[in-house]
Amino acid sequence: VQLVESGGDLVQPGGSLRLSCAASGFTFSRYDLRWYRQTPGNERELVAAIITGGTTNYEDSVKGRFTISRDNAKNTAYLQMNSLKSEDTAVYYCNTDVLSSLGTWYAVWGQGTQVTVSS
After folding, report:
1. Who contacts 104 (Cβ-Cβ below 8 Å, separation ≥6)?
2. Which DSSP string corresponds to 103-117?
3. Which residues face 68 on adjacent strands?
4. Alpha-carbon distance 58 to 65, whole Å?
5. Which whole-number Å values give the CA distances from 6 to 41, 77, 93, 105, 114, in the listed order?
6. What does DSSP assign to residue 52?
7. Cβ atoms of residues 100 and 106 within 8 Å
8. How confident is the model at residue 49, as a pLDDT?
9. Which residues of the chain, if any, have pLDDT below 70?
């Protein structure tokens, strides 16, 4: 069971990036997917979430700028980030909770991808 993020980069304020989260080892379409971000010394912050039916939710500071989506055929989730600001600089992680064969839930995290917004 694995999540692998990619797409992080250095971008100027006002620019755009698309992050990808590739899933493997579980039935991706059956689970909600979330993007978090973390800056040094701070806890991870929930940025966006998409449930299996496609409903999405966003943290207030990214509403109207970020879009979360998923392609179940490709086992991949995305985070399209537009109008980036310096305060969006962080390591971005994707996350899901998977039901094990024993009937217990456990969290799965990717390794993170660095997004730096700077001129």
Report:
1. none
2. S-EEEEE---EEEEE
3. 79
4. 10
5. 23, 11, 10, 25, 9
6. T
7. yes
8. 98
9. none
